[in-house]
């Protein structure tokens, strides 16, 4: 399999989580999308592809490893707390919906021309019956009809060519399903009748002798007749896109308020990934490892003698508290009264979201501090290496200052200059015409 061979050729152990995420998005999903956009893929194959990508993200190889965050959470948009990946099964369905859309809108393509000539043969797409002789692709397309019809909004033209009985133009349901075949017979209209046959000078003209059509006759008085037929996605005249189709398939989640603190223009990817894990409380601190039976004790890695929890590791420990105080000073921010993760989140949401330079510096400083504190903790456990708070602060300041100098151009104001001097950023960051002061 191409995905497996790609992973085996990468030296993944040298990559951070964010580096692996980039390779998954750019390469593995590229391979997968080529097939999901062009054919029906069995569900078991799609599940295997997900398993490969999940293992690569968390282990850097094909070896199965405990996931820090569930795959369902990973495959949510970033503003809903995920990493922005898409589940292959949903992508495959969205690609098939795109084929249906092309067919309904008579898109000029070889596949549409072939389908109309060899499969539909003059019939409506909604009228086609699922038979054993149809290909796997066409059987899947027909199985998606109810899902697609719920998103379509028909605009009825004066000479409408939509199928009167089989197209879901009325309340997203074909009339034959709502009324039955007997009504078609009683109306005196043919099975192949178009909507234009119940229109007269842009007015509705339904058979009056069929009582089953009475409700529809009244409802149609509120349906305007326009110049020509058209279909919209989700709204009249709405354009179709793969993203909209994908959105209609997935289960959406509430937007998380901290997404703009983690993901923003100019962020350092590995810092953002570590901060994302922190917001999801996914770091395997020793208190979690103790509860899983992996460790026999949960002492703080910085040697303060307390239990290592998320709050203690990043804020309550004397070592990390020293780091945080200095980071807040560098950003000219007051020292918080409560040292815990929830208080820091509330501070960030209130004081670090925006396009101005001070807000960018606060977000970047927060992400850098979390990343380097976590890395220092791991160095002490796994590499038996220890750095002083001043050495750790030097690494944080280096990352922040270098990223700011390479990425930003800001106005030369007293407040901005104070931040630049605090962090040791080059004066080249200033420009007279900058707009994100």
Automatic annotation (TrEMBL):
Residues 240-324 form the Reverse transcriptase zinc-binding domain. PANTHER family: OS12G0587133 PROTEIN, REVERSE TRANSCRIPTASE ZINC-BINDING DOMAIN-CONTAINING PROTEIN-RELATED-RELATED. This is Zf-RVT domain-containing protein. The chain crosses the membrane at residues 21-44. Pfam families: zf-RVT. The keyword Transmembrane applies. Keywords: Membrane, Transmembrane, Transmembrane helix. Coiled coil: none annotated. It comes from the Eukaryota. InterPro entries: RVT-Znf.
């Amino acid at each position: 399999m191409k995905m497996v061979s790609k992973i085996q050729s990468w030296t993944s152990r040298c990559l951070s989580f964010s580096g692996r995420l980039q390779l998954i998005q750019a390469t593995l999903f590229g391979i997968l999308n080529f097939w999901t956009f062009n054919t029906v893929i069995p569900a078991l194959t799609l599940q295997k592809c997900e398993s490969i990508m999940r293992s690569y993200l968390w282990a850097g190889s094909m070896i199965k490893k405990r996931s820090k965050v569930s795959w369902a959470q990973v495959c949510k948009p970033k503003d809903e707390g995920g990493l922005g990946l898409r589940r292959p099964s949903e992508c495959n369905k969205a690609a098939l919906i795109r084929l249906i859309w092309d067919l309904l809108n008579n898109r000029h393509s070889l596949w549409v021309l072939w389908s109309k000539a060899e499969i539909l043969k003059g019939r409506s797409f909604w009228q086609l019956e699922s038979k054993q002789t149809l290909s796997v692709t066409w059987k899947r397309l027909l199985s998606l009809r109810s899902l697609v019809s719920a998103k379509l909004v028909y605009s009825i033209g004066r000479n409408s060519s939509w199928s009167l009985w089989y197209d879901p133009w009325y309340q997203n349901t074909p009339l034959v399903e709502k009324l039955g075949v007997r009504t078609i017979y009683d109306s005196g209209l043919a099975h192949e009748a178009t909507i234009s046959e119940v229109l007269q000078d842009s007015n509705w003209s339904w058979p009056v002798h069929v009582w089953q059509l009475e409700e529809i006759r009244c409802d149609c008085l509120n349906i305007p007749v326009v110049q020509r037929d058209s279909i919209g996605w989700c709204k009249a005249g709405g354009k179709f896109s793969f993203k909209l189709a994908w959105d209609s398939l997935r289960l959406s989640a509430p937007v998380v308020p901290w997404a703009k603190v983690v993901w923003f223009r100019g962020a350092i990817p590995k810092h953002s990934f570590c901060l994302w894990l922190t917001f999801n409380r996914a770091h395997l601190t020793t208190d979690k490892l103790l509860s899983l039976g992996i460790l026999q004790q949960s002492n703080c890695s910085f040697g303060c003698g307390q239990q290592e929890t998320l709050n203690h590791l990043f804020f309550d420990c004397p070592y990390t508290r020293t780091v945080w105080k200095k980071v807040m000073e560098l950003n000219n921010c007051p020292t918080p009264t409560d040292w815990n993760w929830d208080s820091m989140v509330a501070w960030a949401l209130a004081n670090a979201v925006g396009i101005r330079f001070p807000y960018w510096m606060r977000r970047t400083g927060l992400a850098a501090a979390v990343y380097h504190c976590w890395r220092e903790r791991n160095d002490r456990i796994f590499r038996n290496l220890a750095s002083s708070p001043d050495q750790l602060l030097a690494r944080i300041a280096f990352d922040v200052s270098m990223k700011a100098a390479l990425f930003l151009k800001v106005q030369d104001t007293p407040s901005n200059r104070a931040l630049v001097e605090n962090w040791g950023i080059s004066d080249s960051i200033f420009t007279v015409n900058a707009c994100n002061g």
